[in-house]
DNA sequence: CCAAAAGTGTTGGAAATACACCCATGC
DNA sequence: GCATGGGTGTATTTCCAACACTTTTGG
């Protein structure tokens, strides 16, 4: 009879595996939801594009590895990021067995280090016009999008894709881009003003219209009072 | 200047890490949602309890590793199982660095191999009366419960915890156990009969009441017609 | 005959949806 | 003065929650 598992934990003899993190870096620009990808200049799958990845080293928390990879590519710190899924088919990477854990990051396109990104041959693509991706990276994008859609409906995470001050038309376009559907302007604003964590400032942004739209900011305190969010 | 990541993929030199899967095996028994745990008979954390785990070997899909671990402990095949989360703090296992990917399984308690389970010193515990667990396993339970609650509200996965034929009172008790709250009988049944994928059989189960309750079965075909579920 | 669980509809309130016009401004 | 996008309220429908009595039958 076999021994219980936990007694089998002859740790040192257990096979070890290469573990990677792949980051789905989302940005919002001129009404488009975009994803940051790097060009793959070598075989196999040369000239396809790939998510930004890196390997996890032994004394590093998995989450920290994802933050490191993000920082190395964009120079950004303090970014909203969450784990999406672990992809572990034995043959998902034809070169060697690699388990990849994906993370979804919402970054402010205006903040990242453009130099750095260019030096990595990285490029932003609108989410609905992605190039061919390597391996199972399209599946990763799908999984991250499903989660992002759910998240923005149930929590105040979308604001991470907008600057501190933003207008309601901007916010609505962001939601439309993420959810992939038109939203009724009046109903959208009604919901937002019901949960009252948006503060209207005495400033207008005239860059996108003649009339100008009021700027708002998200008030974390007020949100924490009720912790309710539903779009 | 650093080279782009993907060009750094000197795979062979990358540090490798022990990867485990831990299974949250849920069962439903006499109105209680239960979790199958194994007793840990050795240090560190001797006499605490732990999820059922095992290590991923190199030519094995991550999902397959989880199925293997489940099968080895319970003898069950064809079980509903889904990945929950990858736990990767560098020091989560004090003995060695192990990344653990958790999977949530919904099993039919009447089907599993009792002999096998006992031989592993495994035991079922009601979800609201768990013993002390090792490492970060309580966090794993929390994560799996959150997901299970969401899943049973939005999809027909709860039926995996009941036999082929079941009564509505049983189903309701299952939902109450998972969601941790009382449910109104009439509203519950109204929702179920609105989505009409439950077939009432001409049999009653009299084991739990004098009057007896009609047996139902879940009709997958009918569910697939509309693919709508909401409790 | 009575205790215990199964079964069954209606109503009121809340939330979601649909929908159309005026306003301010730059050109 | 007109084209462009910003801003606002109401009526309808749909969904959800609350709620109480009758039925069956084993003991």
What does this structure look like?
The structure is a homodimer of 231-residue chains. Chain A has helices at 62-74, 114-119, 137-154, 168-179, 185-194, 220-226; strands at residues 16-29, 32-39, 49-50, 52-55, 80-87, 98-106, 122-126, 166-167, 198-205, 213-218. Chain A is an alpha+beta fold. The first copy, chain A, folds into 2 domains: 10-153, Nucleoside Triphosphate Pyrophosphohydrolase (Alpha-Beta Complex); 162-224, Arc Repressor Mutant, subunit A. In chain A, the strands form 2 sheets. In chain A, strands 1, 2, 3, 4, 5, 6 and 7 form a 7-stranded mixed sheet that branches. In chain A, strands 8-10-9 form a 3-stranded antiparallel sheet. In chain A, a hairpin with a 7-residue loop joins strand 9 (198-205) and strand 10. The longest helix of chain A is centred in the middle third of the chain and has 18 residues, at 137-154. Chain A is elongated and about 60 Å long. The model of chain A is unreliable at 1-10 (pLDDT under 50). Chains A and B meet through strand 1, strand 4, helix 1, strand 5 and strand 6 of A and strand 1, strand 4, helix 1, strand 5 and strand 6 of B. The structure holds a DNA duplex (27 and 27 nucleotides).
């Amino acid at each position: 009879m076999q021994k219980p598992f936990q007694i089998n934990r002859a740790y040192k003899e257990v096979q070890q595996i290469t573990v990677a993190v792949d980051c789905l870096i989302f940005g919002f620009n001129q009404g488009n939801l975009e994803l940051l990808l790097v060009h793959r200049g070598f075989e196999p799958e040369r000239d396809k594009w790939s998510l930004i990845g890196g390997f996890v080293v032994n004394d590093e928390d998995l989450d920290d590895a994802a933050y490191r990879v993000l920082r190395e590519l964009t120079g950004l710190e303090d970014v909203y990021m969450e784990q999406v899924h672990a992809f572990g088919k034995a043959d998902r990477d034809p070169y060697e067995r690699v388990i990849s854990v994906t993370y979804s990051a919402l970054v402010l396109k205006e903040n990242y280090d453009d130099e750095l990104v260019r030096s990595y041959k990285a490029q932003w693509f609108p989410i609905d016009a992605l190039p061919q991706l390597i391996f199972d990276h399209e599946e990763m994008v799908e999984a991250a999008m499903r989660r992002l859609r759910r998240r923005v409906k149930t929590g105040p995470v979308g604001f991470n894709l907008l600057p501190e001050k933003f207008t309601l038309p901007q916010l609505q376009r962001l939601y439309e881009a993420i959810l992939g559907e038109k939203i009724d302007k009046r109903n959208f604003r009604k919901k937002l003003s019901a949960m009252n964590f948006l503060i209207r400032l005495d400033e207008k942004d005239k860059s996108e219209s003649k009339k100008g739209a009021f700027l708002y900011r998200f008030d974390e305190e007020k949100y924490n009072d009720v912790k309710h969010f539903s779009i």
